[in-house]
Amino acid sequence: RMTEKVLDTFKNIRYKPGLQIWTINNLKMVPVPEQAFGSFFEGDCYIILYGSNDDTQSMDIHYWIGNGSSQDEQGAAAIYVTQLDEYLGGSPVQHRDVQGYESAKFRGYFKQGIIYKKGGVASGFKHVESNVYNILRLLHVKGKKNVTATEVEVSWKSFNSGDVFLLDMGKSIVQWNGPQSNRGERLKGCLLAQDIRDRERGGRARIGVVEGDREEASSELIKMMISVLGQRTGSLRDAVPDDTPDQFQVSHVKLYQVSDTSGQLMVQEVASSPLTQDLLHSEDCYIADVGGLSLAVWKGKKATVEERRAALERAVVSVYHCNSNEIIHLQFANTLIHVVQGRHATQDEITACAYQAVNVDNRYNGAPVQVRVTMGKEPRHFLAIFKGRLIIYEGGTGKPGVVNPDPGARLFQVRGTNEINTKATEVPARASSLNSNDIFLLKTDLVTYTWYGKGCSGDEREMGKVVSDVLSKQDKQIVMEGQEPPQFWVALGGKGAYSSDKRFEREVALHSPRLFNCSNQVGQFRMTEVAQFTQDDLDEDDVMLLDTWDELFLWIGNSANQYETQESYRCAVEYLKTHPAKRDPETPVITVKQGYEPPTFTGWFNAWDSHKWSGGLSYEEMKSKLDDSGSVTQITMVCDPFSLSTD
Fold first, then answer.
1. Where would I find the Gelsolin-like domain in this sequence (predicted)?
2. What are residue 591's DSSP bridge partners?
């Protein structure tokens, strides 16, 4: 119940954009430091609160259950989630995620991948901090889209020919790619290795890559692996296929009603697929069972408190009462060094920046935490440093042969609603860069125009004023969309088409856009939703479906096969026909090819990078980048495997 003690537990918890994570320690909620986000101990349970970055300020509450967690911890997490939902007004969507079976939405919070760590909070949580090298572990990396890394026995017996493995020795990380692993899996392995280096080691670790089918080309790294794992005997195990549900499971849905109208709380099956919206009544709660793969709990607005509380509990494990409801606040006093990489930075500049970061780190005796920040992926704590005043410019200084944009006309896209999520990004100074959903600043020689798109909110306008004052001390002129003076269009090189569909004029969209990956790489054609999507989620090996409600876009990657392209269109039509909201079957389905995206497509992505497809790093380029930043000699010099322990 919501006693004073329970209220005190949540007194510092409120909506804010991004993630807030707690672990259950002795049946109490303990906050997890941000540098540990994405790493989960198998013996623990976690509570994750996600606040959307848009004007809806919607929230999702997840509780994650490790395979080795106790029943008491699971019960405590379930009760905390129910109470937290009530404390936040009942508006959050609740989710229950189990290790190895996380939802697409949950995985979408951790784009670089999820790491499963052995042990539990009692034995290991205090060691989750940056700049720790006393570690020896082997991570089994699986998945191309949704990457997970599980700690396995540090032995050749754990390897197989189809997956990627990371041998983490603290100061050195060796990535071993199975001969049958694909390019996408290898690239994800590289990204995860970099994430471990930057987030857990403060940027101070070397990474080397071994191709399993060409081990002779990395003889020094193989020697290092043998010194830790011993001599390999026998052949590797065959590849382990990913667990994928069959079509029957996905389409076989049952609906259960949770009601106490009879005077006793009852759960009974009321329907099976296909389900229709009129089956749901606001006086009750319902549980939808999707083929035994996932459960969705729907809570009616007029349902009783007992029904609302019982709905999620009846969907899972027995629930146990926790003995206390007390929150522990951990204080973290870290010095941070942010290594910021521009979208078009050269390898020489990246290397020089990393070198300078080490110099600064040495001045503080290795105490700071190094954080690598990539343009477009700025973490919330980084944006908060600038209090809504961060401006990202195109061009650069000191690049040979690079001509900076004409200072007479520069255009900046402003996105954000408060001091901790706002930034301005320079975009090409032309009409096609505009978007009715956002605010843009056009800086000319004489005046700075603040352009308000019809879909921007009052909070966004306030932050636009803040950024405008930072950008220029010139005269300011506010321009409403549709009322632009001639000089405005002259500065942009003339009028032109841009994302100005009526959908962009709504301050709060009636329907949020959804992105789906369409692929047959697992042997069967599947559509999988991508949560918290960005331009980086567009996979050139596949077809992607973007649902903006009024239109469906089929984005065709350059390497997508013909079968995927054909099946995607058929599935798009079927998607409309079977949508529970009774979508218009005549909704346009628009095919877009990679590199030729129209403004009506790019407008749904923040700070679209038109140069991405020519400038994005392939796996081979990523591997070369790692080789340049840390040679084999450097890696072997910093690694002394015999001095490492697994304590």
1. 28-107, 146-213, 268-316, 336-383, 422-489, 527-601
2. 554
Query: Mind listing the pLDDT tens digit for each residue in 70-114?
Result: 888 888 888 888 889 888 888 888 888 888 888 878 888 888 789
- Checking if the pLDDT of 639 tops 80, the result is no
- Read off the pLDDT band of 546 (50, 70, 90): very high
* DSSP single-letter state for residue 160: B
Query: How many CA atoms lie within 13 Å of 256's alpha carbon, on the beta-carbon side?
Result: 18
Q: Work out the pLDDT band at 643, boundaries 50, 70, 90.
A: very low
Read off the pLDDT of each residue in 153-182 and give the average, rounded to a whole number: 92
Can you tell me the distance from the alpha carbon of 543 to that of 557, in angstroms, rounded to the nearest whole number?
6
Half-sphere exposure of 272 (CA within 13 A, CB side): 6
Q: Which residues of 405-439 are buried (b: 16+ CB within 10 A; e: fewer)?
A: eeeebbbbbbbbbbebbbbbbbbebebbbbbbbbb
> CA-to-CA distance for 538 and 195, rounded, in angstroms?
20
Q: State the helix-helix crossing angle for 183-195 and 619-629, rounded to 10 degrees.
A: 40
Amino acid of residue 631: S
Q: What phi and psi, each to the nearest 5 degrees, are found at residue 267? A: -125, 120
Count of CA atoms in the C-beta half-sphere (13 A) of 518? 27
Percent helix, strand and coil across the chain, each to the nearest 5? 30, 25, 45
45-56: per-residue pLDDT in tens? 999 999 987 777
3-state secondary structure of 445: coil
Looking at residue 143, what is its pLDDT? 75
Q: List Cβ neighbours of 92 (8 Å cut-off, separation of 6 or more).
A: 49, 58, 59, 60, 61, 84, 85
Conformational region of residue 546, where left means phi above 0, alpha means psi within -120 to 50, and beta covers everything else: beta
Q: pTM for this one?
A: 0.55
